[in-house]
Write a structure and sequence with these properties.
Largest sheet: 7 strands, mixed
CATH class of the largest domain: Alpha Beta
Low-confidence stretches: 1-5, 7-12
Number of domains: 3
Helix content: 25-40%
Number of strands: 24
CATH architecture of the largest domain: 3-Layer(bba) Sandwich
Distance between the termini: 54 Å
Shape: globular
Length: 473
Amino acid sequence: MPLETQMLGGFAMSYDFDLFVIGGGSGGVRCARIAGGHGARVAVAESRHWGGTCVNLGCVPKKLLVQASEYGDLARDARGFGWNAEPGTHDWGRLIAAKDREIARLNGAYARTLGNAGVTMFEGRARLEDAHTVVLEPGPLDPDFAPKRLTAERIVIATGSSPERQADIEGHELAIVSDDAFHLADRPQRVTILGGGYIGIEFAGIFAGLGSDVQLVYRQDLPLRGFDEDLRTALAEAVAARGITVHAGRTISRIRRQDGGYSVTLDDGRSWATDLVFFAVGRSPNVAGLGLERAGVETTAHGRIVVDGHGETSCPGIFAIGDVTNRMNLTPVAIAEGHRLADRLYGPGPRDWSFDTTPKAVFFSPPLASVGLTEAEAAARGPADIYLTRFTPMRHTLSGRDRRTVMKLVVDHASQVVVGAHMLGDDTPEMMQALAIAVTAGLTKQDFDRTIGLHPTSAEEFVTLRTLTRTTA
């Protein structure tokens, strides 16, 4: 159990709480809930919305929009199977209203989860006054919140991140970011997106699927820097097949108002008219106004809170988890970090989490997902055997849609352990979760080979890949 007092100058100092969590997102809520379950006196402060970015302005609403964008294609696909189906028209307002109802339900679920764990909740904006004192002030969630000053033996910062704007672009203030996209009153017919990462790719697919004309601009030759090169190439082909116009190796130099919309000019001088400019150029840790300097919490030049292997900052007793540390910015990672920290501080000890084999997915249409090492990463460690296949999935042999599936295994040549799995195609994220178990367990290519396939599925290809594509030097 945590100490409720601390010796200070020979006197016992009591705290209001054992643990105070700043931020009611996925990581902060998990940390608070688990710590409370271990018997700690825990409080959480959230100033904007329970559930954080993932529930309100990220993973959950984004996937709902992705799913909405696919129904028109499914209607067109149905013709190949004998259905007299037509896509019809889409009602953006109805979609956003339905999305908002689901998010409100999840907000309530997060609050109930904390309450059931005995966690004290504050709907105010928190900042540090010193290493053990938190000042709470009114925030957007409750503008009438009564200011408070509270103390805690330990403090966890789990404030997440926010989308960046490309401030060096003339007219950058005219663009929106992902936070804004979930609340647009109407769907724009002409959309220009800057950024070839997760968010840019996913929203390009959303708008294109719902009927917008999409121009996608990114600096790299291929989208999704950091993913396997074969997957990046396959995605570039899928983006083109989706009807999205790509401007690779370019950036926007100027945005101006024009005829009720905007004029966008690239760095090579090309320009066009658009109804919306959307920046998807990365995210920055939410550290402004937290008072980190008062407690001596070290940050980098880009605002990332520096932590050690246990999540502890430069100030003993203050910890940070999730996107605010800008390490592996994925919701399940923040949840695992919060759970592990609570177990270590108040439980029997931390569980063993395999962060190196964290799977990741991009919900384009078709989606792609990955776990483990890319071919380049594996090759840097030694020779690797590569197994690669491309095919038209069964559904689209009848639908006639231009959609290919790409599947790839990366195998350490010496040990034959499967160190990476990569895929683009229908149902990819659902398959990748199971493959992540295999890669985490260190299974070999022979383990895959002796597994009987489930027929007829795309997934069976992962256990029937027999022909070696290449071995890296």
